[in-house]
Amino acid sequence: MSEAATAQAARAAIGDSEFDRDTAVTLREPGVYDIDLSAGWTIISAVNGGYLLAVLGRALSHALPHSDPFTVSAHYLTASQPGPAVVRTDADEGREVERIRVLASYGDLDALPDDVRTTATPPAIPPMEHCFGPEDGPAPVDGSSAITERLMLKLDPATLGWALGAPSGKGEMRSWFGLADGRDPDPLSLLLAVDALPPTAFELGISGWVPTVELTVHVRCRPAPGPLRVSITTRNLAGGFLEEDAEVWDSADRLVAQSRQLARVRLS
Amino acid sequence: MSEAATAQAARAAIGDSEFDRDTAVTLREPGVYDIDLSAGWTIISAVNGGYLLAVLGRALSHALPHSDPFTVSAHYLTASQPGPAVVRTDADEGREVERIRVLASYGDLDALPDDVRTTATPPAIPPMEHCFGPEDGPAPVDGSSAITERLMLKLDPATLGWALGAPSGKGEMRSWFGLADGRDPDPLSLLLAVDALPPTAFELGISGWVPTVELTVHVRCRPAPGPLRVSITTRNLAGGFLEEDAEVWDSADRLVAQSRQLARVRLS
Prior knowledge:
In chain A, 15% of the residues lie in helices and 32% in strands. Chain A is of the alpha+beta class.
């Protein structure tokens, strides 16, 4: 039996294991925690990113009224080394009127190398003239919404069952996407494109509000002029939450953005 | 021709379109921007989340030395309404020794409803005794790393080609995962599980350091005791970046966590 298997048999308990000891934080003052980052979780010479995330997660478990992380987004600024470190938390329970908070990394897309070794392929969306938008029928969304006037959306009929009262049961939504006034896409409008389609929940037979809890967008390439294709999939609807994974493709068949969001859903 | 199509023909220019006007921010003082959130981008009664993200993205474009978003993670605290709003930016160029910054939403996993309507299925990983860990051969990673001593990793042979000098060319990595001392998983250790496997880049024939830029984890369910199965896929390697999408499954066949990270890769 290997060492790991022997240890597995001994079964350290949650709260009293190496992982717990090495992620334990010490309260210095309200919201500020000290930790000695363990050299036991290094990969080559840097501290593993998942271990770091667990350390911050534990500090937040202490600092917040609830102890379970639902969604954690981390941006890694520089490589971490073992040794003393400080965790500063800033608890915001949303009691104020703050609506949204972001963490972002910016750069120069034009400075990136040209290599493309993607295995992803553009979504199979029929030509635009075979797709349908809000203007092609009675408003498919209850209470016609202003945003539909701003957008050029042409939905793949294969993901439009919900509008006809026959949702497919698959968590998929695909559409051509543009701005109604024909403005070409740029990195900023990609941030809009990933959250502009009807919720995949509609195709899962769920109607109503699907508020986003967390949304992360990766902009991978400056988009070429012309309409975009957006494909969104949901694989896991459980516990009153679902994820929406979006891919955005440009007219040059480049995958220009990927996003994932966690959204709440009310099951009736 | 529909109204949208007419407008599409007219072709508003980047910088002079409805989207640009409605996401324009006004500098109030360094790092603080005012905006009048347009009622034109509402869905039902709330402002669309993608429009909001574009507004914050534009403010950051002004506040930062680079104008292109690479990755933006947003947490939505409360629904936004049209009207005056303030965007506060905090530019950190990583010149200090800050290593990592997170945004997180916490809650009580045990309070979530029991519904499971997932279409995702557990990864097809062979039984643990047919999988291989670092202890089963010469250390497969150059410069044996401390973290391998902390973990119980048993990799699917189908994703181990890289260790034998024959990477599959597919961006996939699958493994059984546990802590070496047998501690059972909990929500915090899931934060570790999503970033503990060898990089998918290895199976794409790329070796060396693949530093994480951004990592978001969604914890979807409290994990049952016993080993986890982790499946990671990469679909898009381009421009010197790749994404890693992880799913973590527990011994009860529940999808307990999903994550996505953006990582840099050095192509040789």
